[in-house]
Amino acid sequence: MKLLFTLFTLISISSLLQGQDTLFRENFNTLEISEWTMEYVNQEWDWTISVGTGYGAHPPFETQEGDYNAAFKRLDGSSNITKFITPTFSLEGTTKPELSFYLAQYFFFSPFGSGNSKLSVYFRSPEFNSNNWVKLQDFNDAYDVWTKQHILLDTAKFSSVQLAFEGRIGDNEHGTCIDNINVYETEVTPKYLNSVSAIQAAEDIIPSGSDNNPILQLKFSVGGNDGVLELDSLVVTAIYDADEIVPENGVKIFATSDAEFNDTTQIGNSASFVNGKAIFTNINKDLPFGNTYVWVTYDIPEDPTNEFKGKKVDAKILINNIKVNSAYYPDQIINPYGYREINNSLFYDNFENSSNWVLTPEFEIDKPKGLSGNRGNPDPTYAFSGYKVLGTDITGIGTFDGGYELYLDENEYTAQTNVTIDATYYKKLQLNYYRWLNSNSNDNTSIELSTDGGTT
Fold first, then answer.
1. pLDDT tens digit string along 57-70?
2. Secondary structure letter of residue 243 according to DSSP
3. Residue 332's CB: how many other CB atoms inside 10 A?
4. SS3 assignment for 220-283
5. Angle at Cα 192 formed by Cα 187 and Cα 194, nearest 5°?
6. What percent of the chain is modeled with pLDDT above 70?
7. Ordered domains of the chain (ranges, CATH)
8. Which regions in the chain score pLDDT beneath 50?
9. CA-based Rg of the chain, rounded to a whole angstrom?
10. How far apart are the first and last CA of the chain?
11. pTM of the predicted structure, to 2 decimals
């Protein structure tokens, strides 16, 4: 997958650390953290002070700086979420307070499941939101080496503040580590667009009759801490057969704060291709400090006569076809390698208004809630597309909220379609779906096909 990267000329600015006033600091250089506290979200599993993960087989094997770091690490296959909470400090009277810290969370490959632990950062204050935790940012990507992170604390300028580093760890995930935490006052620096990059969002088959299929992922990287940096307009140019196939108002753009696609936050109005171009104006998306991901998606209409089979769709961004504030980008065409091919769909369901299934407990169609069960990885917190998914124990049923029960009989849980699919004269049939599979290595899950109405 080719990565296209355009680097813009930056205004020369002073380092954010020059002349800073330190408001809170922790480098874990002693084993004494008595002023820190923990809040167990699902099970009593502690953060520890160690060197790296403290788990010899997986990095990091060393601290980022000094003698020790904090780690939330795996010792068994259970799913655990715990907040690691700072002592109270003050941000009263600050102008542009900022948090920086180093993060490492190794991506582990295994035939039984692969992934990385994850981190979320929160703040709370008795002067705001009834002292409830307010999420600042999620860190869901893998960082195999120590990587510096920054979060602006504009929303947390109170006299009494605490931060929480919430570790989330599941089966075959081997820990999240933090080190060298600093909260400091920074100089006021106008926001600027550091870079924009793009990758092909996906290359798998698109079924006919489906909406919001990701085509292109744009990554806007922003520096600075003050003012408005507004994504104002964007022109998407069709490639291959997109201009012919994508229906009216079938081009959309969505924004996410991380590199995982979901279509819950549409920005701008839906657009249509006219002479091969879909034009988005008055998007009015203020780009925050850090990374914002903008996804170009296509709707694909029903295809009862199988006219779209094998046709391809893709997108590119031409020079100066992105407007941010009063400036135009990019300075070279954005057209990462790849495309998506369309196939006729004999059956398609995105579970938003589905009545196509006969479910036996604990299968449900509902909005995922990130429940964690008793072992393994937690459920997702969002659907891939739309709001609902099909899965087991999405809402918290039985003994283990978010996880299937123990000692099940064969096929005790089933989700069976109640429609018959006519595949007469078709060959090379394929089943395509997105999954979030979380089953014990000793358990079996299966997909079965019946040609006699489900009798066998």
1. 678 999 999 999 99
2. H
3. 12
4. EEEECCECCCEEEEEEEEEEECHHHHCCCCCEEEEEECCCCCCCCCEEEEEECCECCEEEECCC
5. 115
6. 92
7. 17-185 (2.60.120.200), 192-343 (2.60.40), 346-456 (no CATH)
8. 1-19
9. 24
10. 43
11. 0.80
